[in-house]
Amino acid sequence: MAVKKHFLFFSISFIILIADQLSKYFISTYTYSADLLILKIHFIKNFGIGFGLLNYPSVKFFLIALIAVIIIGILYYYCRYKKNHKLFIIPLALILGGALGNLLDRVMYGFVIDFIDFGFWPAFNIADSAVTVGVILLIVYFIRNKPAKRKIRKKRKV
Asked: pLDDT at position 86, please?
């Protein structure tokens, strides 16, 4: 059962990472641009965090360190979790794949390549989408699977 858990986790993370990097490669290499009703596809350099927040080149090293710590935290939490609940494993894998995709961009280019732009929302990419969906699914998991409250025994004075 552990092999299935690991295979699912690392397969999803790898698929997200590859899809993210291939899409960014295509957008940046071919400078592809398209306007599709409310959706625009075009190359954008994002020096900030997800969805263009804190868009300052000077925070590059801080963001690389922060993303690395988040990745280590995800892997630590995944390894410590003993259950094989898919609603827990899949969101963590989505978050890991997205974090790795954006970390790779930051290390290689010094910025993240964004290309999906709705105009009314900050531009984003596949990695940002995976992280967002993963966080939402993780919240759903924790809401549905609240830990049982432990009864605290009062110490009796003798």
From this structure: 85
The torsion defined by the Cα of 74, 97, 126 and 26, in degrees rounded to 10, comes to 150
CB 118 within 8 A of CB 38: yes
Structure tokens at 109: 């280019």
Which has the closest alpha carbon to 100: 3, 15, 4?
15
Instruction: Fill in the amino acid letter for 1.
Output: M
Does the pLDDT of residue 151 top 60, yes or no? no
φ/ψ bin of 49: left (φ > 0), alpha (ψ from -120 to 50), beta (otherwise): beta
Domain ranges in the chain are 2-142
For residues 92 and 102, the answer to whether their CB atoms sit within 8 Å is no
Catalytic residues: 114, 128
Backbone angles phi, psi at 115, to 5 degrees: -150, -10
Place of tokens 């899409």: 23
18-22, 82-86, 108-112, 124-128: least confident range: 82-86
Q: What sign for the dihedral angle of Cα 135, 137, 139, 145?
A: negative
